[in-house]
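Structure representation:
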Amino acid sequence: MKKIIIANWKMNPVSEKEAEWILSGVKKTVAKLKKTQVVVCPPFIYFNNLQKIIGKSANLSLGAQNSFWEIEGAFTGEVSPEMIKNYGGSYVILGHSERRALGETDEMVSKKTLVCLKTGLKTVVCVGEKVRDEQGDYLVFLKDEIRNSLNKIQKRFLRNLIIAYEPIWAIGKKDTEAMSPADIHEMAIYIKKILSEIYGQESALAVSILYGGSVGRGNTGEIIKNGGVDGLLVGHQSLKSESFNEILKSVEKI
């Protein structure tokens, strides 16, 4: 199974020309990949032109950073999963910590996840604790967040579900100070255990687990090799073609 590397551009860059330049710089490297699936998630406004650059690339896909929980209607400022799909998107990121910080609840994430999966999008649900405490309460928090965010998600939709573990306390650090591969592996096992409790072990093992949180070219290889995850969710490093290409090359070598 291919490793999945998702580039979350967030609210960047500020011009379409720059967005095209970043993607074009990455596409050359992606064309040489055989074991890695790359997903670029730019702001919605760049979808049309970037899809033209992606073309029919087998290893490069377009994804959205968010979606609403209705297909259409009087919802000012929202974008539906059907719109994402119609504009060439095949992936969507939901429940990112930055959106949760703005007030997005587990219930909202669950509603979005259900409609996106029904639409056929590969749906990346982000989870992660804010802090780690010695008592282990963060494990209870993570368990509740996963269960609540996947509320009403039936087993038949799991083939398109991806969980991205992104501990908030590990974001924004140097890659040498980020979460260790051993700790990431431990959390990947724990997430699989939670999914097994909900859906059964066989179904849980089919769900890909990604890691995000200070991912850079310095720690990518070790995380993929020893972190027990199926890929990465990359933030600011994905906006630098050279750095992101190094990340992709490191993954491909594993």
Remarks:
- The beta strands are 3-8, 36-41, 60-64, 89-94, 122-127, 161-165, 208-211, 231-234.
- The first strand starts at residue 3 and ends at 8.
- The domain at 3-253 is CATH 3.20.20.70 (TIM Barrel).
